[in-house]
Design goal:
334 residues; alpha/beta; 2 domains; three-stranded mixed β-sheet; 12 strands; 40% helix
């Protein structure tokens, strides 16, 4: 009888503790989902009173939900436009977290090492380069046996910051792309199949012979898929690594609002299709308790979370930028 009573008391205590746990909801980019999942799991060990519920729905969805205030924070790999910021009911802050590489991954017999440049990638996605043994691809890949095979183009079907980074790059290296398609989280694709999220694109490429797609580096690595070296603005073919993304970020001129691009940067060591990712947070928090916990987490992410970035092939923010971001986090009111 005593044991039963003790069990009931312990159960009540556990239930009370669980019910007191606060949930902070977020939604948005799939690009940083692996690192954010790691952060949320690790932070639960630091503060068990709060749980983060993050829905990886794409940057477009993250921007819409934070504007609608249906989540406590949004996430995006493309900075919000002035127009979108004006439509928000309060001042939204861009909090950069990490940077990463958007890679060209493909499915070819034997998956040989492939090199590509901006004009060729643009031609493939414009639908003007249709076969893997096209003269323009062959010229970049001397000695590589390229098949006489149709290229199956795969792109995102949802509003996506990965798409923003990719199309931002193409708009810088191809006048045709800039005039016909442009830069955005969603564009009118001239050709190809759509996949939802980085997960959907990598899945489509992996199961489709002759396919090519763009995904964040870790999605290619986790699926053991090949990635192309891409010619940078200095004329050097560079592979996507933490070091080459860090080199790209080192060139960035970062304004006070933290909205910046690092695609097609200068520097022989820079990977050209790289981008930062942001958390979107209201400067004035409506819920004081949640706001306080969110600020605590953001400070932890700058101090401890950044140290985990390289484990998952993301580039941490430079120390100087982290200090600037911490000052911005301290401006959040609750």
């Amino acid at each position: 009888m005593k044991l039963t009573a003790l069990t009931l008391v312990l159960t009540a205590l556990v239930s009370g503790s669980a019910s007191a746990q606060m949930t902070i909801n977020g939604a948005g980019a799939t690009f940083p989902y692996p690192i954010y999942s790691k952060w949320f799991d690790e932070y639960a060990k630091v503060d068990s009173s709060v749980r983060f519920n993050y829905q990886s729905i794409g940057s477009g969805g993250g921007q819409k939900q934070i504007i609608a205030q249906t989540v406590d924070f949004g996430a995006s790999d493309g900075p919000m436009t002035d127009e979108n910021l004006k439509s928000a009911p309060g001042k939204l802050l861009h909090i950069p977290t990490v940077a990463g590489a958007v890679v060209m991954t493909y499915n070819l017999p034997g998956n040989p090492a492939v090199k590509l440049d901006g004009e060729t990638i643009a031609g493939i996605y414009l639908g003007t380069i249709k076969k893997w043994n096209d003269a323009k691809i062959a010229a970049l890949n001397s000695g590589v046996s390229l098949p006489d095979q149709e290229i199956v183009v795969v792109h995102r079907s949802d509003g996506s910051g990965t798409t923003f980074i990719f199309t931002d790059y193409l708009s810088k290296v191809s006048a045709d792309w800039k005039s016909k398609v442009g830069t955005n989280t969603s564009v009118n694709w001239p050709t190809g199949l759509g996949g939802k999220g980085n997960e959907g694109v990598s899945g489509q490429v992996k199961q489709t012979p002759g396919a090519i797609g763009y995904v964040e580096l870790i999605y290619a690595k986790q699926n053991k898929m090949p990635v192309a070296e891409v010619k940078n603005s200095d004329g050097v073919f560079v592979g996507p690594t933490v070091e080459s993304v860090t080199a790209a970020m080192a060139t960035a001129q970062i304004p006070d609002d933290f909205r910046f691009s690092i695609t097609n940067p200068a520097g022989k060591d820079s990977y050209p299709i790289a981008g930062a990712t942001w958390l979107l947070v209201y400067e004035q928090q409506n819920d004081a308790a949640k706001g306080a916990k969110l600020v605590e987490f953001l400070k932890w992410s700058m101090a401890k979370g950044e140290e985990m970035a390289k484990q998952l092939d993301y580039a941490p923010l430079p120390q100087e930028l982290r200090e600037r971001v911490l000052k911005r986090i301290n401006e959040i009111k609750f």
